[in-house]
Amino acid sequence: MSYVPQYTISARLLSLVEEIASLRERIQGASIELSWIPALQKDTRTRNGHASTAIEGNPLTLEQVRALEEGRELVASDQRSQREVTKYFAGLRFVEKNVTLKTIRHEHLFELHRILAGDVMDQGKAGSYRTMGVQVGNHLPPAAEDVSPLMFELLEWWNDKAPELSPVLSAAILHYRFEHIHPFADGNGRMGRALSLWELYRRGFDSHHIFSVDEYYWEDRPAYYAALEQVRLAGEDLSQWLEYSAEGFRHTLQRAWLRVQQFQQKGAEKIVLTPKQERLLGLLRDHGSMAPSEIWAALDISKQGAMNLINPLLKAGLIEKLGTKKSGRYALVNPG
Fold first, then answer.
1. Residue 160 sits in which domain range?
2. Residues 158 and 299 occupy one common structural domain
3. Residues 178 and 310 in one domain
4. Residue 2 lies in a domain
5. Is 182 a catalytic residue?
6. Which of 205, 233, 264 marks a domain boundary?
7. Element (H, E) at 289
8. Which of 113, 180, 182, 209 is an active site residue?
9. Are the C-beta atoms of 270 and 280 separated by less than 8 Å?
């Protein structure tokens, strides 16, 4: 029998899904300008690779991960951390290559797990379900003998029932259920997030592969783990997890739209936005314009820290200063 997820569609969840659909349509509409897509895909792959491995404790910075993605050698970092990242990139390539796969089977999961976790596992064997009991924080996943039948049910649901739902919901359900079963001895976090991404790609939600949802989880890991744990506390009711995930998708698409606007800027210098710079652009979008003191108060940083964020954005032509030197305010520059 197939897995049957339990949840309620709240008014908030429905509103989030509608807003996500609107944002996605806006981004898809802008994607007719194909020239900037490869650069944005590369940036997104880097951010996914950094965030998903960082959640599991990988110490490499975003810039170090970007160097690895570009094939540059890192001297001042351990080899295992580098292998984790390069293997995650290989896993993303596997997912992208198999985006049109009609039916996903156990052997596909085994192959992806071998790619992601081979040579970087602390226990167990890459590419096969665990034969041991494990504990994840306060969570005791199902016994090893129950893993294969539970995964059979999940795969049956994924292949047959998931297409009936919005991909925003099906990706979140798949993500949680996989982490609950915890079918491998190690590497389940990276694997579950990769499967969620695979579902988005299969369903055509992120047809250009320019959304980095894992960044949302990484930036507040305690909230991410708490959202997963809350499902278990609620007796496997997924309602709040779906709201949390949908909020993550909305946040991700808002960031993607900012990045699209950056790449659309005519004559603007291209820069790699930091998370705080993206937060700043989001604040300016919401407020229209802000004084310097409002910016550093909102971001909880020093005046110099705020200027370190602002100056590259001014140089890149993404924001502009309005008014006088003493009473000036900063605002977004509309792409045109």
1. 11-264
2. no
3. no
4. no
5. yes
6. 264
7. strand 289-290
8. 182
9. no
